[in-house]
Amino acid sequence: MAKQKISLPSSMGGIMRYDEEVGGIKLAPGQVIILTLVVCGIILLLQLLK
Predict the structure, then answer these.
(1) Chain-centre distance of CA 15, in angstroms?
(2) Which of 3, 8, 21, 44 lies at a CB distance of 3.0 to 4.6 Å from 14, suitable for a disulfide?
(3) Do the Cβ atoms of 17 and 4 come closer than 8 Å?
(4) Residues 33, 25: Cα–Cα separation, whole Å
(5) With contact defined as beta carbons under 8 Å apart, do 32 and 39 qualify?
């Protein structure tokens, strides 16, 4: 069953299931969204600073 979940399309649902079950860190859906926004924000800042 784990292999089937890894092979899901990389939508938010697939990423959350991968983080919760395969990676040792269990994240709530809200935390995944916040982390994604933080990463995107950092990338945008780096692009603007160039």
Answers:
(1) 5
(2) 8
(3) no
(4) 15
(5) no
Q: How far apart are CA 21 and CA 27, in angstroms?
A: 10
Residue type, 49: L
Q: Summarize pLDDT for 1-50 with one digit per residue, the tens.
A: 445 455 545 554 555 555 455 555 566 777 778 888 999 999 999 999 87
Residue 45's Cβ-side half-sphere holds a number of Cα atoms within 13 Å equal to 6
CA–CA distances in Å: residue 50 to residues 2, 24, 46, 47: 41, 35, 7, 6
The pTM for the full model equals: 0.42
Domain ranges across the chain: 2-49
| Dmax (CA) of the chain | 44
